[in-house]
Amino acid sequence: MAQYKANMPVFAPITGETDKTTTYGTGIVLGKFMSAEIKPNYIEGSLYGDDALAEYEKEFQNADVTLGTTFLPIDASEAMFGESVTGEEGTETVTAGTNDAAAYGGFGFVTAEKHNGESKFVMYWLHKVKFGAPSDTISTKGENITFNTPSIEGKAIGDAAGNWRTKQYFETAAEAVEALKTKAGIAT
């Protein structure tokens, strides 16, 4: 299927994990979706015998995740990256420390896929991801206005149950958004 649009990037911190389920705390919407790349990495091994390939194994190891978004809310600094947030809303101070520890959480978004002229809406969910804080790119205004937006990178791994990604398909975008909000613990 061809993917042709996406929206609503969310992160929900992991609050509990057993060999059967992973539970998530209250999720955060991470600005407006610009782009995401999820690149699975595999480990593999080959066994040769009698001058030919006798066995071959390829297993999931992790996935590199890159998210481009219009902005990251201040709440993400603490929930995702372990930074300190103090002060009243509108006058917060965010302090990054050398001992800050990023948190594992679920990451997801809604996308649309089209095949033979028919669209399906997908709730895309990575079960266990840890992101690093974004780089700061700042530039002065010149003859043209240039917008700098955050891009964050992380790694997705399998949860305790061995799951790393879920794609759930729906007939409407509203159903996919509702499923994502429910999964991420975001009030509707």
Topology, pairings included?
Elements: E1 2-17, E2 22-24, E3 28-29, E4 33-49, E5 52-69, H1 74-81, E6 84-86, E7 93-95, E8 104-115, E9 118-131, E10 151-156, E11 165-170, H2 173-184
Antiparallel strand pairs: 1-2, 1-3, 1-8, 4-5, 5-10, 6-7, 8-9, 9-10, 9-11
User: How many β-strands, per DSSP?
Assistant: 11
Largest sheet: 9 strands, antiparallel
Average pLDDT score? 94
Order of helices and strands: EEEEEHEEEEEEH
The number of domains:
1
Shape: globular
Classify the helix fraction into a percent range: 10-25%
Helical stretch tally: 2
* Termini Cα gap: 29 Å
Residue share in β-strands: over 45%
Low-confidence stretches: none
Q: Can you walk through the features of this model?
A:
- This protein is mainly beta and 188 residues long.
- It has one domain.
- Helices cover 11% and strands 53% of the residues.
- It is built from 2 helices and 11 strands.
- It has helices at residues 74-81, 173-184; strands spanning 2-17, 22-24, 28-29, 33-49, 52-69, 84-86, 93-95, 104-115, 118-131, 151-156, 165-170.
- Strands 1, 2, 3, 4, 5, 8, 9, 10 and 11 form a 9-stranded antiparallel sheet that branches.
- Strand 1 (2-17) and strand 2 (22-24) form a beta hairpin.
- It is globular.
- The model has no long low-confidence stretch (mean pLDDT 94).
